[in-house]
């Protein structure tokens, strides 16, 4: 089974559709919050990942009888503001979703993975904390926190056949890039050595690689076209 959080839009939606078509991964489940799914409605559940009890109930229900569980944490939120002008409540909402929400899902699924002596956890982070982007203090803080979380979970669970890795995504031709003004998009492309946006297929193929490669554990993998 593959579980994809935040699967009703952007990269999460792409992955749900891609894995649903993959004959190796017949059983796909996802959750959504603000945006209802437009396809494969039977694969989705409405879940607020900020609520630990709701998350646990959902995970316990969908993983019944499953022995090989893969979790891809795609759910995310963003808030743009210079730090000295940021609204405290809005800033914390990003942390609540991107960090605490991700942890809630991981904590709910780990007992099942440890019982089965198998698990794959893949956290979707970003190149943004590495390069520094104005106005993204909440997003950067939440995504860079996943790096430390990944390392800790790796050493806690490796002996149970569980791997935990993070993908640091650059700019892809999907999702939030569609909201970027054209002049800013041109500037982004100039900074990418290959001068093009990423293909979501690269994310999919990397996840497949991590599923099939148990000795890659605790890694932060950059998928950004060479952007530093």
Keywords:
43% helix, alpha/beta, 228 residues, Rossmann fold, 7 strands, seven-stranded parallel β-sheet
Task: Give an account of the 3D structure.
The chain is an alpha/beta fold. It has one domain (2-223): NAD(P)-binding Rossmann-like Domain (Rossmann fold). Helix content is 43%, strand content 16%. The protein contains seven helices and seven strands. It has helices spanning 10-20, 52-62, 88-116, 128-131, 137-157, 182-191, 200-212; strands spanning 2-5, 28-32, 44-46, 70-73, 119-126, 162-169, 220-223. Strand 1 (2-5), helix 1 (10-20) and strand 2 (28-32) form a beta-alpha-beta unit. The longest helix is centred in the middle third of the chain and has 29 residues, at 88-116. The chain is globular, with a radius of gyration of 17 Å.
Classify the secondary structure makeup into a structural class.
alpha/beta
Number of helices: 7
CATH top level assignment: Alpha Beta
State the shape: globular
Give a quick summary of the entry:
This protein has 228 residues and is of the alpha/beta class.
Per-chain topology:
Blueprint: E1 2-5, H1 10-20, E2 28-32, E3 44-46, H2 52-62, E4 70-73, H3 88-116, E5 119-126, H4 128-131, H5 137-157, E6 162-169, H6 182-191, H7 200-212, E7 220-223
Parallel strand pairs: 1-2, 1-4, 2-3, 4-5, 5-6, 6-7
